[in-house]
Amino acid sequence: GSLEEMSLPLYFGWFLLSSIQDKVRCTSMDFLKTLDTLEAFKKHLIDFTGKAEKEVDLEQYFQAKGTLHCTTMFCNYGKAEGAKEYAQNPAVKDLYGSAFELSLSALFVTPRTVGARVSLSEEQLLLWPADAEKAAESAPLPLGSRAHVTLGCAEGVEPLQTGLDLLEILALPNGELIEEMELGSLTYYGEGRWLLALREPICTPACFSSFYD
Ligand code: A2P
Q: Most exposed of 6, 11, 32, 135 (fewest Cβ within 10 Å)?
Protein backbone atom coordinates (compact mmCIF):
# COMPACT_ATOMS: atom_id res chain seq x y z
CA GLY A 1 0.00 0.00 0.00
CA SER A 2 1.28 3.40 -1.03
CA LEU A 3 0.81 6.44 1.16
CA GLU A 4 -1.98 7.55 -1.17
CA GLU A 5 -3.90 4.31 -0.61
CA MET A 6 -3.39 4.64 3.12
CA SER A 7 -5.08 8.02 3.12
CA LEU A 8 -8.42 6.62 1.97
CA PRO A 9 -10.89 6.02 4.81
CA LEU A 10 -12.70 2.86 5.87
CA TYR A 11 -15.84 4.51 4.51
CA PHE A 12 -17.46 7.80 3.50
CA GLY A 13 -20.94 8.65 4.70
CA TRP A 14 -23.35 11.00 6.44
CA PHE A 15 -22.94 11.05 10.22
CA LEU A 16 -26.05 11.87 12.21
CA LEU A 17 -25.88 14.68 14.75
CA SER A 18 -25.46 13.04 18.16
CA SER A 19 -28.60 14.52 19.76
CA ILE A 20 -30.69 13.11 16.90
CA GLN A 21 -29.00 9.72 17.23
CA ASP A 22 -30.72 9.29 20.60
CA LYS A 23 -34.07 10.20 19.10
CA VAL A 24 -33.64 7.73 16.24
CA ARG A 25 -32.55 4.98 18.65
CA CYS A 26 -35.62 5.66 20.84
CA THR A 27 -37.99 5.57 17.88
CA SER A 28 -36.51 2.30 16.71
CA MET A 29 -36.70 0.79 20.22
CA ASP A 30 -40.36 1.84 20.48
CA PHE A 31 -41.05 0.22 17.16
CA LEU A 32 -39.34 -3.04 18.16
CA LYS A 33 -41.25 -3.06 21.43
CA THR A 34 -44.57 -2.62 19.64
CA LEU A 35 -43.75 -5.13 16.89
CA ASP A 36 -42.91 -7.72 19.56
CA THR A 37 -46.43 -7.54 20.96
CA LEU A 38 -48.38 -7.77 17.68
CA GLU A 39 -50.30 -10.97 16.99
CA ALA A 40 -49.20 -10.81 13.35
CA PHE A 41 -45.56 -10.77 14.48
CA LYS A 42 -46.08 -13.64 16.93
CA LYS A 43 -47.61 -15.65 14.09
CA HIS A 44 -44.30 -15.44 12.20
CA LEU A 45 -41.99 -15.79 15.22
CA ILE A 46 -40.43 -18.92 13.81
CA ASP A 47 -38.58 -16.70 11.29
CA PHE A 48 -36.62 -15.26 14.19
CA THR A 49 -36.32 -18.20 16.55
CA GLY A 50 -36.25 -21.18 14.22
CA LYS A 51 -38.68 -22.80 16.65
CA ALA A 52 -42.42 -22.36 17.00
CA GLU A 53 -43.67 -20.90 20.27
CA LYS A 54 -40.26 -19.70 21.39
CA GLU A 55 -40.31 -16.14 22.70
CA VAL A 56 -38.10 -13.38 21.35
CA ASP A 57 -37.23 -10.02 22.89
CA LEU A 58 -36.42 -7.87 19.86
CA GLU A 59 -34.78 -5.18 21.98
CA GLN A 60 -32.23 -7.76 23.15
CA TYR A 61 -32.08 -9.61 19.85
CA PHE A 62 -30.24 -6.79 18.01
CA GLN A 63 -26.92 -5.26 19.04
CA ALA A 64 -26.30 -1.58 18.34
CA LYS A 65 -23.18 -0.71 16.31
CA GLY A 66 -21.25 2.50 16.94
CA THR A 67 -22.23 5.94 15.74
CA LEU A 68 -25.30 6.17 13.50
CA HIS A 69 -24.45 6.94 9.89
CA CYS A 70 -25.49 6.31 6.33
CA THR A 71 -22.54 4.82 4.42
CA THR A 72 -22.14 6.23 0.91
CA MET A 73 -18.98 4.36 -0.09
CA PHE A 74 -17.17 1.57 1.73
CA CYS A 75 -13.53 2.14 0.72
CA ASN A 76 -11.77 -0.28 3.05
CA TYR A 77 -8.72 2.07 3.11
CA GLY A 78 -8.48 1.90 -0.69
CA LYS A 79 -8.81 -1.86 -1.05
CA ALA A 80 -12.45 -1.73 -2.22
CA GLU A 81 -13.06 -1.52 -5.95
CA GLY A 82 -13.76 2.04 -7.10
CA ALA A 83 -12.61 3.59 -3.80
CA LYS A 84 -9.99 5.87 -5.34
CA GLU A 85 -12.33 7.03 -8.11
CA TYR A 86 -15.01 7.81 -5.54
CA ALA A 87 -12.63 9.87 -3.39
CA GLN A 88 -11.57 11.84 -6.46
CA ASN A 89 -15.13 12.60 -7.57
CA PRO A 90 -15.48 16.43 -7.59
CA ALA A 91 -18.82 16.26 -5.74
CA VAL A 92 -17.21 14.21 -2.96
CA LYS A 93 -14.32 16.68 -2.66
CA ASP A 94 -16.57 19.76 -2.79
CA LEU A 95 -19.17 18.52 -0.32
CA TYR A 96 -16.76 16.89 2.14
CA GLY A 97 -17.45 18.32 5.59
CA SER A 98 -20.80 19.87 4.59
CA ALA A 99 -24.02 19.64 6.54
CA PHE A 100 -27.04 17.88 5.04
CA GLU A 101 -30.55 17.06 6.09
CA LEU A 102 -31.27 13.35 5.78
CA SER A 103 -34.80 12.03 5.55
CA LEU A 104 -35.42 8.68 7.25
CA SER A 105 -38.57 7.41 5.56
CA ALA A 106 -39.00 3.88 6.89
CA LEU A 107 -37.82 1.42 9.53
CA PHE A 108 -37.24 -2.21 8.62
CA VAL A 109 -36.56 -5.39 10.54
CA THR A 110 -35.39 -8.82 9.39
CA PRO A 111 -34.06 -11.80 11.39
CA ARG A 112 -30.58 -10.38 10.63
CA THR A 113 -30.79 -6.59 10.89
CA VAL A 114 -32.79 -3.53 11.88
CA GLY A 115 -32.32 -0.30 9.96
CA ALA A 116 -33.80 2.95 8.72
CA ARG A 117 -34.33 3.62 5.03
CA VAL A 118 -32.88 6.95 3.86
CA SER A 119 -34.60 8.80 1.00
CA LEU A 120 -31.90 10.79 -0.76
CA SER A 121 -32.40 14.21 -2.37
CA GLU A 122 -31.04 15.06 -5.84
CA GLU A 123 -28.00 16.73 -4.28
CA GLN A 124 -27.40 13.80 -1.94
CA LEU A 125 -27.54 11.42 -4.90
CA LEU A 126 -24.45 13.19 -6.30
CA LEU A 127 -22.54 11.48 -3.48
CA TRP A 128 -24.07 8.08 -4.11
CA PRO A 129 -21.92 5.51 -5.98
CA ALA A 130 -23.42 4.45 -9.31
CA ASP A 131 -23.13 0.72 -8.60
CA ALA A 132 -24.34 0.49 -4.98
CA GLU A 133 -27.58 -1.18 -6.04
CA LYS A 134 -25.84 -3.80 -8.19
CA ALA A 135 -25.74 -6.14 -5.20
CA ALA A 136 -29.50 -6.63 -5.61
CA GLU A 137 -30.28 -10.05 -7.02
CA SER A 138 -33.47 -8.67 -8.57
CA ALA A 139 -34.17 -6.38 -11.49
CA PRO A 140 -32.26 -3.10 -11.13
CA LEU A 141 -33.54 -0.77 -8.40
CA PRO A 142 -33.37 3.05 -8.63
CA LEU A 143 -30.15 4.82 -7.63
CA GLY A 144 -30.05 5.35 -3.86
CA SER A 145 -32.42 2.48 -3.02
CA ARG A 146 -29.81 0.94 -0.75
CA ALA A 147 -29.31 4.10 1.36
CA HIS A 148 -29.87 3.25 5.03
CA VAL A 149 -28.73 3.66 8.61
CA THR A 150 -27.88 0.41 10.39
CA LEU A 151 -29.58 0.44 13.81
CA GLY A 152 -28.63 -3.03 14.95
CA CYS A 153 -27.51 -6.47 13.89
CA ALA A 154 -28.33 -9.92 15.25
CA GLU A 155 -25.45 -11.82 16.81
CA GLY A 156 -22.77 -12.69 14.27
CA VAL A 157 -24.22 -10.52 11.49
CA GLU A 158 -22.06 -7.86 9.79
CA PRO A 159 -23.57 -4.37 9.25
CA LEU A 160 -23.06 -4.76 5.51
CA GLN A 161 -26.11 -7.06 5.65
CA THR A 162 -28.52 -4.18 6.43
CA GLY A 163 -28.31 -2.67 2.93
CA LEU A 164 -28.73 -6.09 1.34
CA ASP A 165 -31.82 -6.75 3.48
CA LEU A 166 -33.28 -3.40 2.39
CA LEU A 167 -32.63 -4.14 -1.30
CA GLU A 168 -34.27 -7.54 -0.85
CA ILE A 169 -37.41 -5.97 0.65
CA LEU A 170 -37.62 -3.25 -2.01
CA ALA A 171 -37.33 -5.84 -4.77
CA LEU A 172 -40.43 -7.69 -3.54
CA PRO A 173 -43.50 -6.67 -5.52
CA ASN A 174 -45.97 -6.37 -2.68
CA GLY A 175 -46.13 -7.23 0.93
CA GLU A 176 -49.10 -7.82 3.18
CA LEU A 177 -50.37 -4.64 4.82
CA ILE A 178 -50.66 -5.61 8.49
CA GLU A 179 -51.87 -2.46 10.19
CA GLU A 180 -51.82 1.30 10.44
CA MET A 181 -49.73 2.12 13.48
CA GLU A 182 -49.22 5.51 15.08
CA LEU A 183 -45.82 5.79 13.39
CA GLY A 184 -47.03 4.62 9.97
CA SER A 185 -48.15 1.59 7.99
CA LEU A 186 -46.63 -1.79 8.73
CA THR A 187 -46.11 -4.30 5.91
CA TYR A 188 -44.94 -7.91 6.09
CA TYR A 189 -42.83 -9.29 3.22
CA GLY A 190 -42.48 -12.90 4.37
CA GLU A 191 -39.46 -14.68 5.89
CA GLY A 192 -39.37 -12.34 8.88
CA ARG A 193 -39.10 -9.16 6.79
CA TRP A 194 -41.06 -6.15 8.13
CA LEU A 195 -41.20 -2.55 6.94
CA LEU A 196 -42.78 0.40 8.67
CA ALA A 197 -43.29 3.31 6.25
CA LEU A 198 -43.14 6.36 8.49
CA ARG A 199 -46.10 8.72 8.32
CA GLU A 200 -43.76 11.61 9.15
CA PRO A 201 -40.21 11.00 7.91
CA ILE A 202 -37.55 11.71 10.53
CA CYS A 203 -35.44 14.64 9.32
CA THR A 204 -31.97 14.69 10.75
CA PRO A 205 -28.95 16.93 10.28
CA ALA A 206 -25.93 14.93 9.16
CA CYS A 207 -22.36 15.76 8.17
CA PHE A 208 -20.82 14.24 5.05
CA SER A 209 -17.46 12.96 6.18
CA SER A 210 -15.41 9.78 6.52
CA PHE A 211 -14.44 7.24 9.14
CA TYR A 212 -11.05 5.73 9.96
CA ASP A 213 -10.94 2.98 12.57
P1 A2P B 1 -23.67 -0.42 6.83
O2 A2P B 1 -23.41 0.72 5.91
O3 A2P B 1 -24.75 -1.32 6.35
O4 A2P B 1 -23.95 0.04 8.23
P5 A2P B 1 -17.35 -2.48 9.36
O6 A2P B 1 -17.37 -1.88 10.72
O7 A2P B 1 -18.01 -3.82 9.27
O8 A2P B 1 -16.01 -2.47 8.75
O9 A2P B 1 -18.25 -1.53 8.45
C10 A2P B 1 -18.17 -0.14 8.51
C11 A2P B 1 -19.34 0.45 7.76
O12 A2P B 1 -19.23 0.19 6.37
C13 A2P B 1 -20.67 -0.11 8.20
O14 A2P B 1 -21.54 0.98 8.33
C15 A2P B 1 -21.04 -1.09 7.13
O16 A2P B 1 -22.37 -1.37 6.87
C17 A2P B 1 -20.32 -0.57 5.91
N18 A2P B 1 -19.83 -1.68 5.10
C19 A2P B 1 -19.00 -2.66 5.49
N20 A2P B 1 -18.68 -3.48 4.47
C21 A2P B 1 -19.33 -3.01 3.38
C22 A2P B 1 -19.43 -3.41 2.02
N23 A2P B 1 -18.76 -4.46 1.54
N24 A2P B 1 -20.23 -2.69 1.20
C25 A2P B 1 -20.91 -1.62 1.65
N26 A2P B 1 -20.86 -1.19 2.93
C27 A2P B 1 -20.08 -1.87 3.79
A: 6
